[in-house]
Amino acid sequence: MKCFSFYIGEKKDEPKSIKSVSIRSNNSTFVEGDIRRSGSELNSQDASDNSTDSLRRTSFPSLSQRSCNLKVFTVSELKSSTKNFGRSVMIGEGGFGCVYKGFVKSGEDPSKKIEVAVKQLGRRGMQGHREWVTEVNVLGVVEHPNLVKLVGYCADDDERGIQRLLVYEYMPNRSVEDHLSPRSEAPLPWARRLKVAQDAARGLMYLHEEMDFQIIFRDFKSSNILLDENWNAKLSDFGLARLGPSEGLTHVSTAVVGTMGYAAPEYIQTGRLTSKSDVWSYGVFLYELITGRRPIDRNRPKGEQKLLEWVKPYLSDGKKFQLILDPRLERKSIFKSAQRLAVVANRCLVRHPKNRPKMSEVLEMVNRILDSSKDARSPQLPLRSLVPMEASENTEMKNKRRIVDHRSRENNWFVRVWRPKLLRTC
User: Fold this and answer.
1) Cα 332 versus chain centre, distance
2) Which residues are part of a known binding site?
3) In this structure, what are the phi and psi dihedrals at residue 422, rounded to the nearest 5 degrees?
4) What topology does CATH give the domain 176-417?
5) Residue 175 carries which DSSP code?
6) Helices 406-417 and 331-348 sit at what angle, rounded to 10 degrees?
7) Where are any strands of DSSP class E within 328-400?
8) Average pLDDT, stretch 396-409?
9) Protein kinase domain location, by residue (predicted)?
């Protein structure tokens, strides 16, 4: 699924004042001044509905301000490690450019070599360059088990001009999108899907809540969740990330970018970005895990192309809900767990962003589902504990409706849960 940029009115994301990182290489002409002139999306001061936004925003911590263990590579080193960027070692291709598998000397033990993924910037002009700088800004100063590790970067010259490359830890089990694809030889087991949901929530919670500054991912999707050798999930590709609003402000106003099918409706309509935009994208991703389908798939019949619109009619009762479960999985064995994960997704997909949970709350709900699924003998989670805020209105009348026999209650719980108005994103 390709990333796209779409703008509402005037283009707001062009930087007026740049505060960026100092990135130097002994053999490079791509020095601090070049980066400062080009700017970083994270550090750009955007036009905002609130004119004080650009004055009050705290600039993103730079590599020169924080300790950093990133290695500076030369083009010749990376050419040697990737067979001259040969197609035989190319492992991916995206909006940024091509990704190659290679081997470089370990920073901890130079006598050893480690596997890495080398991402080479495509010829996309300043926008691609800003994304490159943003990746270095973000991954150079954050560290978490559920964020992909940046080993180093290259800003060097060769006969083709300036080369911009990023060197990451190698993730041998590819992306979650690869394993959810119908072309995948073996479907991702349900237990592993729940673990991926947990890992991804941990990564987002760290970005949103666990640092002295907030980062909004802005392009959360299954293809940006990579799996290591132990199948741990890690968020990757931070080229579109943004610094969250400063204290006293509710949002960041920015050009609207993202991936079709994942972007939150209020962000598309207004350009107002908050961490709750990532929460919406996470909710979409949960339905990917449940159904095995992409958010938008033009190869399907017309009524099934948009995932959230397709699932909505099936959420009225338990019997219908079974029909949206990934047919490659054992539906009966995952039914209860999938129902509960769908409730979490619905909380994330509440139309009003203020009523969506924080990622720490989402993680707590996902943790409870994992704990319940690991021990089949443990009591099932009460469904009402996961009902979104909109569904709690008119509580007295709803309590009367709940006085029904057990079978009816089991089959119709989703009617009460599915209150949020979903999706007009595309």
Assistant:
1) 30
2) 119
3) -100, 140
4) Transferase(Phosphotransferase); domain 1 (1.10.510)
5) B
6) 40
7) none
8) 41
9) 85-370
Report the run of H or E that residue 331 belongs to, with start and end.
Answer: helix 331-348
Residue written as token pair 């490079």 = 28
Would the pTM count as exceeding 0.85? no
Q: How many CB atoms lie within 10 A of CB 209?
A: 13
216-270 confidence digits (pLDDT tens): 999 999 999 999 999 999 999 888 888 888 777 778 878 888 888 999 999 999 9
Residue with tokens 């979409």: 284
What percent of the chain clears pLDDT 90, i.e. is strictly above it? Answer: 47
φ, ψ for residue 411, nearest 5 deg: -80, -20
Domain boundaries, the chain: 14-169, 176-417
pLDDT in tens, 173-190: 999 999 999 888 889 999
Q: Has residue 138 got a pLDDT over 50?
A: yes
Please name which of 299, 310, 337, 383 lies closest in space to residue 189, comparing C-alpha atoms: 337
Do the two domains 14-169 and 176-417 of this chain adopt the same fold?
no
Q: Cα-flanking dihedrals φ and ψ of residue 34, to 5°?
A: -65, -45
Catalytic residue flag (residue 219): yes
Q: Is 241 helix (H, G, I), strand (E, B) or coil?
A: coil
Tokens 């204290």 correspond to what residue?
A: 247
Q: Which CATH architecture best describes the domain 14-169?
A: 2-Layer Sandwich (3.30)
* Residue 113 and residue 105 in contact, taking contact as beta carbons nearer than 8 Å: yes
* Binding-site residues from annotation for ATP: 119
Structure confidence at residue 124 (pLDDT): 56
Better-scored residue on pLDDT, 408 or 170: 170
Tokens of 6: 């779409």
Residue pointed to by tokens 């290591």: 228
Q: Which of 199, 219, 237, 278 is catalytic?
A: 219
